[in-house]
Amino acid sequence: MRDNMGIAVVCMVNTTSYTNQVYDNITILKPTFYGGIPTVLFSGYFADKYGPNLVIILGVSFNVLLSFLAPLTAEWDFYAFVFIRFCMGIAAV
């Protein structure tokens, strides 16, 4: 998902309004990686406690659900979309 959003952002770049566009593109890409930090810290613990299959199934299911919500939130509010991207980073096991 991280790579797909990067490609989509490149396709959305408008060359006429470059200044705000670059900031928005960076703001869209950063939360996924920031959301991945807590996942790295705690996913091993939860995998030992509950089993790796359950952790992966829950992470992928949550990520799929958020992937369906992402286009809706992108039309609704920019910062809601950034929050969804952060949650997608948390779900990326």
UniProtKB/TrEMBL annotation:
Origin: domain of life: Eukaryota
Predominant place of localization: membrane
InterPro entries to which the protein is assigned, alphabetical: MFS_dom, MFS_Na/Anion_cotransporter, MFS_trans_sf, Nucleotide_channel_N
Domain Major facilitator superfamily (MFS) profile: 1-93
Compartment(s) where it occurs, according to its Swiss-Prot or TrEMBL record: Membrane
GO terms of molecular function: transmembrane transporter activity
Name of protein: Major facilitator superfamily (MFS) profile domain-containing protein
